[in-house]
Amino acid sequence: MAKNRAWIIGASQSLGAHFATRMAAEGWAVTGLGRRPAAEAGLPAEVTYVQADLSVPETLDGLAEKLGDVPELVVYNAVRYPAQSEGPPPLGELEAVFRVNALAPYRLLLDLLGRPREHFCSCVVVNSDAMYHAREQNGVYSASKAALRVLTGTLAATCRGGDAAVSTLLVGPLADPQKLAGLRRVAEQRGVTEAEVVRAFLRKTNTNLVIDALIDFESCYQGLMHMARLGPVANGMMYRLDGGSSGGLV
């Protein structure tokens, strides 16, 4: 019996790497795409890895065809944050952020949904709660995520009544290893518990959320698989994971 296939776009680290690893362990044939070299991705041997930089316009040309036949599940998880610099960010940097965070998933999924296939295809776009809350420090990133939400909605509209679904996994602040290591160092330096530092961090950086803990990767994975199992019912759906907050509205 042939394996179900999945593409994980943005699989070289953090949440995307968790998705690719978990799906491969459950018997999926997984192709992961990421900006980092394969040696730095640390993915299991079962995952087919493709290195590509989505901030480069030419990368998208024919990418859907290069990745192979249309799979049963596509997850777009790639993300780019604006580079920290003095003064206004260069226009090229702004374009790169919007290209990776909004334009690339729209173009890639539009190309993919236009290809012939003999099976249902679930497309899940990972988005951020930051799209609701633009601040001085993250305005560009938030705007790119708001654009992604609008474009995801238009993709879902094209799938209505068809053999594909486009949905959104909306996440709040994630418990990625790099962030956890930094918070652990702060806790050790101050002589307090890690939980205390996490609560202080969340209250300062996510004033729109009422949560005391970061969102774990496994909860995100379970949400992803739930939407994939729903099939056409998930089209246009938003599955929100914000740690049980009551501080934001969808």
Walk me through this protein's architecture:
A seven-stranded parallel sheet has the order 3-2-1-4-5-6-7, with helices on both faces. The chain has 250 residues and is an alpha/beta fold. The chain has helices at 14-25, 38-41, 63-66, 91-113, 139-159, 177-190, 194-205, 217-230, and strands at residues 5-9, 29-34, 48-51, 73-76, 121-128, 164-171, 238-241. Helix 1 (14-25) packs across helix 8 and helix 6 (177-190) packs across helix 7 (194-205). The protein is globular, with a radius of gyration of 18 Å. It is 42% helix and 16% strand. It has two domains: 5-172 and 216-241, NAD(P)-binding Rossmann-like Domain (Rossmann fold, 3-Layer(aba) Sandwich); 175-214, no CATH class. The longest helix is centred in the middle third of the chain and has 23 residues, at 91-113. This is SDR family oxidoreductase.
Topology:
Elements: E1 5-9, H1 14-25, E2 29-34, H2 38-41, E3 48-51, H3 63-66, E4 73-76, H4 91-113, E5 121-128, H5 139-159, E6 164-171, H6 177-190, H7 194-205, H8 217-230, E7 238-241
Parallel strand pairs: 1-2, 1-4, 2-3, 4-5, 5-6, 6-7
Helix pairs in contact: 1-8, 4-5, 6-7
Protein name: SDR family oxidoreductase
GO molecular function, one term: oxidoreductase activity
Pfam families: adh_short
